[in-house]
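pasting for the record
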Amino acid sequence: MLLMPRFLLPDVFHLTDDFLQSHQIRGIIFDIDNTLVGFRTPEPTPEVRALLERLRSGGIQIAFVSNNNKIRVSRFAKGLDIPAYHRACKPLGVVLKRVQRRFDLPAGQIALVGDQIYTDVLGGNRAGMITILVDPIDCKETALFKFKRRMEMPVIQRKKREDAQK
């Protein structure tokens, strides 16, 4: 099912070395807003910086792929030496495939980590990547986002039931 994430995690800090190794993940594409930081947080927090450094020092390739605008994405990525793509039009896969070519990895060794099913999970699944859905950081969202979150709940509940049966 294209809307079903492969994994549910509470946050990006659960991306441990053991988790990545056991699933043969060698590249990670991160959404930014509500995945790494709240949508009102303009720059990476010290904790996010430490996470990114830990991942990179472990040999994991990283990119940021966001549907947000250039100013937002550039400001977030400034000084991190991590490729960043704005207006990615997720769930369309054009930018995701570009990142895959840049990583020079099979899609099955790349994880797309995000907080939304209809953009991040759908886009990653369509591209053949490992999809990881994290809980959104900031719950103060617009009416449209609240509606989309309600639409995602049946998928999330189904995934939780499936995981509980394993």
